[in-house]
Amino acid sequence: MRQLLLYIISGLLLFSFQFAYADVPKKWTFLIFLNGDNGLDPDATQNLLAMEKVGSNDQVNIVVQWASLSAGKTVRLLVKKSTDPTHVTSPILQDLGLVDMGNYKNLQDFIQWGVTNFPADHYFVDVWDHGSGWHLQHNQHFHSKQNTLNDISWDEISGNWITTEQLGSVMTYAANVMGHRVDVYGSDACQMAMVEVANEMSTSVDYFAGSEFVEPAASWPYAEFFRHVEARPNLTADQVSKLLTKEYVRSYEGGSGGRAQVTFSAFQMDKLNRFNTAFKKMSDEIRTLAPSEKAKVLSAAQNAQQFFENDYRDVGDLLKKLKQAKITGISKADITEVQFALDEFVIANADTKNFRDSTGLSIWFPVTTNRYNQYADRYSHLDFNQATDWNASLNYILQGTH
Fold first, then answer.
1. What is the pLDDT of residue 23?
2. Model pLDDT, residue 239
3. Using CA of residue 326, residue 330, residue 336, residue 340, what is the dihedral sign?
4. Integer CA distances (angstroms), 209 to 136, 191, 236, 259, 397, in order
5. Residue 220 in contact with residue 257, Cβ under 8 Å?
6. What is the DSSP string of 237-254?
7. Can you tell me whether residue 395 is helix, strand or coil?
C-alpha cells in the first residue's frame, strides 16, 4: 500500500512538473485546431513547421491540436522553437489516437484542455482547415477528393464537419470556460468572413478574423505573425486582429506565401448589433418595392463583388451598387446608415488588386430561385436572419425569376 502511494505521488509530481508553466498566466494563448484529416494534410504540416520557426515563449503559448491523415492520429503540442525545417519537433503532450475533427465537441474539448493547462490573459481560437462559408461549397472540384465541403473543419475520415451554428455554440462554450468573451476567433479557412458566420458568435467573441475569398495552401504567415506578437506581447485583441490582417495580405504580395489574390479582414463584434439594425430597416424596405424596383436590387447584386461561391457578395460593394441604382422605395439615407455601421464593424480590411471592390464582409445573396430554395429553410434559423428578416427579402426579390 505504501509503495502504491509512492507511485501515485510520483505520478502527480511528474504531471505537475510537466504542466508547471500553467501556474502563471501568460499574456496570450493561441489555441490552433489544425485539421489535416483531409487533402490539406501536407499543408498542415508546413504550417506547423512555420510556427516552430518562432515557438512559444515566456509570454505567449502556441498550443495545437494536430490531426494528420497520413499519420492516422491526432496529437496535442506545445509549439517550441526549432531549427529543423523538415520535421515537427515540438513535444507531444497528448496522443489522442484517431479523433473526429469534424465533431464540434472535440473542438470544445480542446479549448477546455487548452484553457485549463495554458492560462492566459487573452485567448485566440484558430480553426484551420477547409472552409466554405455558411453552406456547402458548390465548386466541388476545387479541394476535396470526396467532392463535398461544408461550413468548416471537414474531416474526410469521418465525413463530418463543424456547421456554422455549431461553431457559434462552441464559442459560447469557450467564453464560459475562459470566464470572458473569446478575445479573437480566427478562421484559417476559405470564405468564412461572412455576416452569417459572425452573427452566430456575436455574443461570445470580441474580434473575428477571416477571409471573404479562398485561402491559398500556404495559409496564414504564422512565423511572421508570431514574431510580431512575441515582440509585443501586450498587444490588445484589436491590435492582434489588425496585425494578422496586414501580415496575411503582405505575405501574398511577394512575401512568404509568394503571390496570390487574397482578401482578409477583422471585425469588432460588439458593433454588429448596429449593423443588423440598419440592415433590417433596408431589408424591410426591399419587401415593399414595385417589381421594376426590386429588379434593380437583383441587378445590383449580380454586379456586386462576388467570391468563390457566386452567391456570396461583398456587403460594401452591394451597398454601393444599390445606391447607384437609385431605387425608388429604398432611402439613400438608410443605405448610408448601413454603410456607416459596416465601416464601424470592419476594423481592418486588406486585399490584393483583384479585389479592390472588397470591403471585408460578405453576405448570402443568391440570384436564382434554385439556389435560394436549396438553403432557404436552413437560413431562416440563422441568427442573422432572425435579426434582419433577410430571408423574406431574398424570397421577395427572387419571386418570378428562375
1. 63
2. 98
3. negative
4. 21, 11, 14, 21, 31
5. no
6. HHHHHHHHHHHHHHHTEE
7. helix
Answer whether 315's CB lies under 8 Å from 369's CB: no
pLDDT (tens digit per residue) in 89-111: 999 999 999 999 999 999 999 99
Classified by CATH at the fold level, domain 26-271 comes out as Rossmann fold (3.40.50)
DSSP string, 17-83: HHTGGGSS-EEEEEEEEEEESSTTHHHHHHHHHHHHTT---SSEEEEEEEEETTTTEEEEEE----S
At 92 the pLDDT is: 97
Q: Which long-range contacts (CB under 8 A, 24 or more apart) does 322-325 make?
A: 322/297, 324/300, 325/296, 325/297, 325/299, 325/300
Helix, coil or strand: residue 347: strand
Give the DSSP H/E element, type plus range, for residue 204: none
Tell which residue, 204, 201, 241, 194, has the closest CA to residue 220. Answer: 241
Q: Which residues of the chain are under the pLDDT cut of 50?
A: 1-21, 140-147
In the DSSP assignment, the letter for residue 103 is: -
pLDDT for res 70: 95
Q: Answer yes or no: are the C-beta atoms of 120 and 178 closer than 8 Å.
A: no
Cα(114)–Cα(238) distance, integer angstroms: 22
**312, burial (CB in 10 Å: exposed 0-12, middle 13-18, buried 19+):** buried
Strands (E), 120-178: 120-128, 152-155, 160-162
Q: Where are the domains of the chain?
A: 26-271, 273-398
Q: What are phi and psi for residue 245, nearest 5 degrees?
A: -60, -50
CA distances from 374 to 167, 368, 386 (A): 21, 10, 19
For the entire predicted model, the pTM comes to: 0.92
The candidate with the shortest Cα–Cα distance to 280, out of 385, 395, 394, 382, is: 385
Closest CA to 207 of 315, 345, 343: 345
The DSSP code for 353 is G
What would the pLDDT profile of 239-265 be if each residue is shown by its tens digit?
A: 999 999 999 999 999 999 999 999 999
For residues 20 and 31, what is the distance between their CA atoms, to the nearest angstrom?
18
Buried b (16+ CB within 10 A) or exposed e, 154-177: bbbeeebbbbbbbbbbbbbbbbeb
What is the rounded end-to-end Cα distance, in angstroms, of the chain?
A: 78
